[in-house]
Amino acid sequence: MNASFGRGGTTLPDFEGYEDIQTKKLRFFSWLLPLVHDENARLADLRKRLEYIHDHVRWGHPLDTEDRAWLAEVSHEFGVGGMDPLHEEFWVLIRERVDTLPDNLVLVQAANESAWGTSRFAQEGNNLFGQWCFRQGCGLVPNDRPEGEIYEVAKFDSVDESVASYMHNLNTGRVYRELREIRAAHREVGEDPEASELAAGLMRYSVRGQDYIDELRAMIRHNDDVIEEAREILAENS
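Above: the chain's sequence. Below: its structure in token form.
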């Protein structure tokens, strides 16, 4: 592995100084990919335990105290608290929400929203995905924010938090329900969803709508080789 391509972490490196665009892309993707991998691994572990508990419920076994407490915690995290785990509708919803996202989708959205890690919001707020918040002082005020608006661009203590928050947003946000339904349909037939397909569920992520989706899909296609190289670097160092 090239020593310049290190594992991701809490502090965003300086991506400004690369004259060669392919080197800059590989530097960005190979730095960020481990953070995406870690959050996906966490989601996969949660999902695995959910499937285990779901099987017990379907077999008519009572939930023990530990499983009930864990299930209540996860249900709260993913916005389905208060639903009865003995009802199948609870499991349909929570299995739609507790799931991984294709790493190339996450990587290209980060590149798009943060200008390859060089935007003001990335550098000052560790925010790679342009996520908003709505409490005064919660983030950075955009220079072009219209008068009367109160939103800010969220500020995170680390890039890890930004990645986790973004993935949680797609997994729970009302406006990304279509993305989750596309993913769930693939899961039902034992398939892994493609990033380009899931991009259809991001219509509300940007005011640009379909143009934004088309741009993400183009980025996924054009960066396939460099993302694969980043995966190889991660595998060599895992």
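The first strand starts at residue 132 and ends at 133.
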